[in-house]
Amino acid sequence: MKVGLFIPCYVNAVYPHVGIATYKLLTSLGLDVEYPLNQTCCGQPMANAGYQHQARNLATRFEKLFEGFDVIVGPSASCVAFVKENYPNILGKEAHLCQTPGLIKDVIEFLHDDLKISSLASSFPHKVSIHNSCHGVRELHLSTPSERNLPYMNKIRALLELVQGIEVVEPERIDECCGFGGMFSVEEPEVSGCMGRDKVLDHMKTGARYITGSDSSCLMHMQGVIDREKYPIQTIHAVEILAANL
Predict the structure, then answer these.
(1) Global pTM?
(2) Which long-range contacts (CB under 8 A, 24 or more apart) does 91-97 make?
């Protein structure tokens, strides 16, 4: 299986260690992983701000950059969901067939659904609280939405529970939005900040040392709240925990 590693722009710029952990984990599982050079933004900020015509050029470039891969994997649920859900519409008038939406996977989704891994060599002797992000829950189906009367399911928890020494919990408001929402945090900073504080405090009530999840943007937003308020908790991407001993 030939895997194209998609590292979103803000992960590359702010959390490169998340990209490195993703690469190490995937290669440790015997996969042929390639990181296409000269990656740029997938176009989500532009499209969300109403500039789909500007996002189209980035989407076209993304399609060309990831040609020839069996699957595209990235450590960011929101960016993966954007490509999967929005590229068909953005590229709908293009002459070529839009390929990447059917190939792209969040790293958690890929490990759980495609590889179906049942064991890991990692150890992380800490209590962690799962952040179930809006895009991950409702577009990538990484967990069961709390508003629906369905049996409980959480792919992040299932993978984390393979890690030695870990204690996994979830907040009371299990999948309430953290308030980031990309452009929402720019246009409504006061509301976004308030939602972020509420969410971090909800995670803190669990007694966890870390907040974890598959959406780097949400973790980035909450880490900003933690740093400003000097809260005694930290964020860590789930893939960093899964790759802890590599």
Answers:
(1) 0.93
(2) 91/56, 91/59, 91/60, 91/63, 94/56, 94/60, 96/63
